[in-house]
Write a structure and sequence with these properties.
The complex is a heterodimer of chains A (251) and B (268). Chain A is an alpha/beta fold. Chain A contains nine helices and nine strands. Chain A starts with a strand and ends with a helix. Chain B has one domain: MetI-like fold, CATH 1.10.3720.10. The model of chain B has no long low-confidence stretch (mean pLDDT 93). The chains are: A alpha/beta (251), B mainly alpha (268). Chains A and B meet through strand 5 and helix 3 of A and helix 8 and helix 9 of B.
Chain lengths: 251, 268
């Protein structure tokens, strides 16, 4: 049995306003294993993001227990959230700067990562000079720089245009698999979830509950699995169809 | 991709030429407008259509300017006012920004202060000038405090609003790295608001001049405001006009310095 990295037990969350209170999440329990990529899909506004905020410790749950083995968490947002007043390099090292870990060694690692992801010649540029896909890659480097044990991705590609989204999704998915980083990906894009993750949780409408769980296994590629290859495989359509049916989207 | 200079197409050359031409037309029109204004004024004075005792004339202003420059009088007065303006401006802007930071640190304090700030902001601060001068002293200090008072409240409000408008996710991002409140201030809130602070400074230059001139109207023995009041009292309108002219040029220069700093600081 693999080690458990994150465990949620009967987590619930209510949001309060002066007029009323809303149940955003109701009794959610799941485990994420080390090195696993878990995708959470569900209808818009069902409270998927709240789950990530709870795991990241940004929001306190109203009830339930959260167990995290390692508190070193990386977070990626829908928008890249690069600081437009910082150069690409300075953006990439912001996490290290905050944690006071700007060592020569770490700086070199960042330089290498920028080089590897095709951003080497842009390190002294400002974010406004980069395309959406490049910016999101910088955001990934910024997140990986602090060497998180757990990565939380909140619809990280949904602000990109379709083509860039496929490319960046493919890159990020491949990197996560290579580095064996425990990842929780929240998305409403089913193909994205299927192509990147090992397991998909389908949530209900608000208040969010777990409706169904799918193990995503592509028999044709036990090793060197990449999101793009997954999209092209014959099993892909089957997974898509099954998850789509569970989402029961009313059009 | 960018084409090199040599590879520039005819169409692109014409496009650049068009932009240059448009800029030139605007510059020339601006100068013409100024010349026409002074020309008509001088002409009306020469033809005795206007009474130069009340309106002065460009020639009188120019002559007086020469005379005052020769004996160095004008520079003495200008220096007094400029000093007061710079000190008042720095004081008002610094206190304003520091207060905005403190209010950001404590949201509760900000909420408590809100109605008072709104009322202070709509109150014409120059109404307080006589009181301020009694408190802070009739002279340099009183004038400087008046100048600072004019700009401080609007600075607090503008900068604080800027602080509050920083995108929430930009702050959350830093929190996920475990940032402290002070780090959030240093690395997000302040740098994100540099443009807002600079535009507040540009406004404050003008406001500080208002404070200084009003202060000098009330108590001074020297300065541009003093010259204006003195000129008005002895019916030397050319002195008043000359002073206003110098004031316009100096305020303009200070504004362009701020513009230059803005370009230097904001590179993105």
């Amino acid at each position: 049995m693999r080690d458990i990295s994150v465990e949620l037990k009967n987590i619930s969350k209510k949001f309060h306003t002066i007029q009323n209170e809303t149940m955003a999440i109701d009794d959610i329990s799941f485990k994420v294993y080390e090195g696993e990529i878990l995708a959470i899909v569900g209808p818009s506004g069902c409270g998927k993001s709240t789950i990530l905020s709870i795991i990241a410790g940004l929001v306190k749950p109203s009830g339930g227990i959260l167990n995290i083995k390692n508190k070193n968490i990386g977070f990626m947002f829908q928008k890249d959230q690069l600081y437009e007043w910082r150069t690409i390099f300075k953006n990439a090292v912001i996490g290290l700067e905050v944690q006071d870990k700007l060592t020569q060694n770490n700086i070199q690692k960042i330089e290498e990562m920028l080089e590897n992801y095709g951003l080497g010649s842009f390190k002294n540029h400002y974010p406004s000079q980069l395309s959406g896909g490049m910016r999101q890659r910088v955001a990934l480097i910024r997140t990986l720089a602090v060497e998180p044990e757990i990565l939380l991705l909140d619809e990280p590609f949904s602000a990109l245009d379709y083509q860039t989204r496929l490319t960046v999704g493919n890159e990020v998915g491949t990197i996560l698999r290579e580095r064996k980083i425990t990842t929780i990906l929240v998305t409403h894009d089913i193909p994205e979830a299927v192509s990147i993750s090992d397991r998909v949780l389908v949530l209900t409408e608000r208040p969010a509950r777990i409706k169904k769980e799918f193990n995503i296994v592509f028999n044709t590629m036990e090793t060197n699995r990449t999101p793009m290859k997954c999209r092209q495989s014959s099993e892909f359509g089957e997974y898509f169809k099954n998850i789509w049916e569970e989402m029961d989207v009313v059009e | 991709m960018l084409l090199s200079d040599k590879g520039m197409s005819e169409e692109h050359k014409m496009f650049l030429e068009g932009i240059k031409k448009e800029k030139r037309v605007i510059k020339i029109s601006q100068v013409i407008l100024l010349l026409v204004f002074f020309g008509v004024w001088q002409l009306a004075a020469n033809l005795k259509i206007i009474d130069t005792f009340l309106t002065s004339s460009p020639k009188q202003i120019f002559d007086l300017l020469l005379k005052l420059s020769e004996n160095g009088m004008i520079f003495k007065h200008l220096w007094v006012s400029t000093q007061e303006t710079i000190v008042g401006f720095l004081l008002g802007t610094t206190i304003g920004i520091i207060t905005a930071i403190l209010l950001w640190m404590s949201e509760r304090a900000a909420k408590i202060m809100e109605p008072y700030l709104i009322i202070l902001n709509s109150l014409p601060k120059t109404a307080l000038a006589p009181v301020i001068i009694l408190w802070a002293g009739a002279g340099f200090s009183g004038i400087v405090v008046t100048a600072a008072a004019v700009s401080v409240v609007i600075t607090i409000m503008t900068v604080y609003t800027g602080f509050k408008n920083v995108e929430e996710d930009k702050i959350i991002l830093l929190k996920t790295f475990g940032a402290t409140k002070l780090q959030i201030l240093q690395k997000v809130i302040i740098p994100a608001n540099i443009p807002i602070m600079i535009s507040a400074m540009k406004v404050n230059i003008g406001l500080s001049w208002v404070g200084v001139i009003v202060g000098e109207f009330l108590v001074s023995k020297a300065g541009i405001g003093y010259l204006i009041v003195y000129g008005g009292q002895v019916f030397k309108l050319d002195l008043v006009m000359t002073s206003v002219f110098i004031l316009a040029i100096t305020a303009g220069i200070m504004y362009f310095i701020a513009l230059w700093i803005e370009k230097k600081v904001i590179k993105y």
